[in-house]
Specification:
two-stranded parallel ribbon, Rossmann fold, 8 helices, about 220 residues, alpha/beta
Length: about 220
Amino acid sequence: MSAHGVTLSQRQFDFCFEKVERLGLSDRVRVELRDYRTVAADRLFDKIAQIELYEHIGSENHDRHFAFIHDLLRPRGLYLHHSMTRRLTRNPWKPLQTAGYQKFLGGFVIPGTSLDDIGATLARMERNGFEVHDVENWREHFLKTAELWEAGLRANLSAAETEVGRARARLWLMFFSLFALGFERKACLIFQTLASRRAIGPSGLPPTRADFYRQGALS
């Protein structure tokens, strides 16, 4: 078994590379600092896990993204899609009206961020050759996560201001507070979706979500 990870974050790359070396896994685990779109499709993968990338590629690229991931997987290969989403409005003419928190996020914290809704995400996955097996809402998990991040930064605010400056430290404190509130009010959510590259015949997956966890469907 081998693993191949890619990231655009230098710090993330450095952390992962050092850990792989420390654990003596360099013969089985490869980590690269590169754009995922430059990974060649001449080698097909059994499983792909994508964690909070989708929010950053722009809504105009969503179908292109799924088509690319599809082509990297072998038939029946598994795909874990982890992404933040937004709640649809009740207005059928403006189902994705931009909310204030989205303007703040895209304007000050993570420029270019674009949140999909879960229905559109699943439709795009099916349109681009995936069979969806399981969709799990992690909103309450991330509500707790955002609250812990906020509490941790607030407890160490003076040190953070010294390291990155008062404005940036307080911007991120506001960000954590805002998203804790967003998750609490269900304005934003996070889903983990398990899908496979569609092929005729059995998927080979265990029958229930409990079996996914117990048997490690993506391990």
